[in-house]
Fold:
Amino acid sequence: MLVCPSAGLVGKLAGTYFMEVLEKSRIRRSKPLPAVEIREMELKDVAAVFELGQKLFTAEEWPTLYRSWDDHELALLFSNDAETCLVAEAEGRVVGFALGRVLDKPRSAWRYGLLMWLGVERRFKRGGIATRLLRQLKGLFIERDTRMMLVDTAAKNHAALAFFRRNGFGQEIRHVYLSQNLENDPRYIQRNDRGEDDTED
Ligand SMILES: CC(C)(COP(=O)(O)OP(=O)(O)OC[C@H]1O[C@@H](n2cnc3c(N)ncnc32)[C@H](O)[C@@H]1OP(=O)(O)O)[C@@H](O)C(=O)NCCC(=O)NCCS
Structure:
């Protein structure tokens, strides 16, 4: 698994700078947030979780992420790992979620708890909801004998990095994504000239 590029002095300095900027942009609320309940995700929540995720994980903001937020990914996660999927509910609707998965690595005695997706609705941010979701998910992982919890996020997602660091995550590993545009490959050009649209080779 991945994570963030803040190891080293430059990262630390940049991190300090962004922390200050983010601190200054803290949300000031005119009225307190309504009561929020953290509970297991149910089938009836899937559509609301998907919709909220679409607002939070946009392609522009997460262009290089190795996985993307789509209905298939969510359906798969929910059908295989519902026990480690949580939602935050306020005023009868979903305002946050933490979707996790227990991972057994081949030839490893360790069991890992992966936090796959974490999100909180804009209006509810900085209200401690993600902290509660994370704490509860950690408990579920521990009940399932996991010895380590893993998270990842884009290096420029400073809010998430600040959140994870605040919540005890460390040992950050930089992971580099590379890409190559295939549109200039003769086979791509040939294929398009022929007007092929099937995906089979
Ligand atoms: C990251 C995210 C889940 C945090 O949710 P949240 O409910 O606002 O987090 P909390 O209120 O529990 O924050 C706890 C602490 O984390 C840190 N933190 C959270 N958001 C921060 C921000 N924007 N800037 C700086 N620090 C932040 C702070 O230390 C905060 O404590 P404080 O409010 O007392 O200063 C939320 O911003 C989000 O949904 N982001 C979009 C999706 C995403 O990036 N998900 C993570 C990767 S999957």
Observations:
- The longest strand covers residues 93-104.
- The chain has one domain: 8-193.
- Residues 1-25 have pLDDT under 50 and may be disordered.
- Residues 8-193 form a domain with the Aminopeptidase fold (CATH 3.40.630.30).
